[in-house]
Amino acid sequence: MLEKYEITVPHLFNSEQTTKALARQDIQEVFTMHNQRISDSIEELEKYMSSIDPNLGKASAAARARITGEMKTLEDKAATAVRTQSTIMERQITKASENVYPNNSLQERVLNIMQYLIRYDSLLDRLYDRLHNAHPGNHVLIDVGE
Question: What's the DSSP call for residue 101?
Fold first, then answer.
């Protein structure tokens, strides 16, 4: 999950801020820009079609209305997809945050180490190897399943 969203463990300490930062995708800005481009192109086409035959100008105006409606539908679908992805991402980041920082605190202050010592035979030796040179006050991340 960390690789998927390109975040690090410290980002999980404030999962709400991390989620908001990742979810900032300005769909409306993108669609406004593209709608303007499409509108400009259709306007040129309408002028050309009207110069050929006034009825063709009316037909191209009707086509503009249909295209505008389709673009609005596409924008709505994109907004729905982003909201869904944002909700899924928020759940995943919140779950990871709760696992790494239970009760918004460091694991060693909340979890009992005994269950991990029982489950992972060599954990105590690995902890010693990783921690005996650690500097006081610095946190060390250890994957117990190594």
Answer: S
| pTM across the whole model | 0.52
Residues 71 and 36 occupy one common structural domain: yes
The predicted structure's pLDDT at residue 146: 58
DSSP state string for 37-84: HHHHHHHHHHHHHHHH-HHHHHHHHHHHHHHHHHHHHHHHHHHHHHHH
Q: How far is the C-alpha of 62 from the C-alpha of 39, rounded, in Å?
A: 13
Q: Do 95 and 119 share a domain, yes or no? A: no
**How many domains in the chain?**
2
Residue 65: pLDDT band with limits 50, 70, 90: very high
- Cβ-based burial of 128 (10 A; exposed 0-12, middle 13-18, buried ≥19): exposed
pLDDT at 91 over 70: yes
